[in-house]
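Chapter summary example: a protein plus 5,6-dihydroxy-NADP.
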Amino acid sequence: MKNFIFENATKVYFGQGCVKEYLACLTRKYGDTVMLCYGGGSIKENGIYEEITSILIAAGKTVVEFSGIMSNPTYEKVMEGAKLARENHVGLMLGVGGGSVMDCCKAISIAARYEGDVWADFWAAPGIFEFEPLPLGVIVTVAGTGSECNGGAVITNEKLKVKTGRDYPACNPKFALLDPTYTYSVPQFQMVSGGFDILSHIMEIYFSQPDEDNVSDDIAEALMRGVIRDLRSAILDPEDYTARSNLMWEATMAENRIIKLGKRTDFECHQMEHQLVAYTNCNHGAGLAVLHPVYYRHIYKEGLAKFKRFAICVWGISTDGKTDEEIALAGIEALEDFIVEIGLPVTLQDLGVEKDIDLKTIADSCAIVSGSYKKLTHEEIFSIFQECF
Ligand code: NZQ
Ligand code: ZN
């Protein structure tokens, strides 16, 4: 394994009833005003809004609401939230939702306390910063991104046509409340999209050096098998508590830095998907589902032993009479079959991308990472996009 330092500053409260039990106490030390941040209103339909606001009001808090955080949150929305937080002298931001709400809140937590150009100084410039962002707590309502336990925030700058993410450890939420029953109302398409995002995060880490036996890869394989099993169960019964609670924790485990320890990590698929979003505003997990099998057919030869191991250990592919290459390809095919089985798209057309889209421009705008088994060129990314069509 590569050398590492590990810290995760987020305190997690997990399980049915955890919001009722701990929220009031957790907000106590952050002043009188809480900014309640949420998305398009699902929390008003499923009762979560009512439950949270009544706890906050009973705790004597003034609640400032910031709603309408869209999927793939924009820089403009971040600046709107930062202004509201400043004007109301907010002591704590409480993000209630999925990755989009949590990411937008993290970006607001920086922007609310920074006078300069937030895009240029933070989103276009990775690194560390020397001030304490506005404290943030999160309540997760859909399992997927794992944003609840890291400092990562992915923001779309619509003017520049760039979607990019940074992981600033200071942006880790102070606390994260994870009640699996809050995810029962997630529509099936969004549930499987979030589920595939979990799988994608694990694969993006697993398919990278080092490949010799290591703890991170062993955990990753167990997590991948779990996501596949739990998604199948949650599709059959959306209120299967075991499946929902496993998915929620698998999402956190995939992105709380633990399985990244000692690994280089890839994330080229995420780079490609983020730029597809910048140009088409497609759904994150669904976009990844389209890209992964095609991307893997482009790189498997450079990581043959690992793709063989993936086929055997994750998908149970039999090795009888097959060459290593055939086993590796059977694993990628099993991944693709699973995508179809759970109802996610396998082509860009299925994803709703218009025929006349300029795939070359999108391909040229993608960042190229160094952790992939095969360093892509913009030409090859263009080919991948064309094959995805
Ligand atoms: O907006 P509302 O009305 O709340 O509806 C949301 C939204 O339409 C709905 N939803 C959430 N909880 C629900 C629910 N509907 C019914 N019942 C519930 N309990 O789900 C929809 C999607 O929500 P969203 O937050 O957009 O999805 P997701 O969690 O997949 O987040 C995607 C964003 O996270 C970023 C992505 O790029 C994308 O912008 N990512 C963040 C990462 C991170 N910070 O570590 C890593 C990821 O790779 C990812 O890039
Ligand atoms: Zn993702």
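Key point: The radius of gyration is 21 Å.
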